[in-house]
Amino acid sequence: MADKCPVDHGEHSGDNCPIGPSARSTWASLFSKGTSSPNSSSLSTGREVSSIPRTSDAHWVYPSEAQFFAAMARKNHNPKAADMKSIVPIHNAVNERAWSEVLRWEAGRGGENCGGVKLVNFKGRPNDISPKARLMTLLGYTAPFDRHDWVVDRCGTRVRYVIDFYTGRGAASSDVSFYLDVRPAIDNWEGLRMRLGNTFDGLFGLQNSGAAPPS
Question: What does the record give under GO molecular function (predicted)?
Answer without folding.
Answer: holocytochrome-c synthase activity; metal ion binding
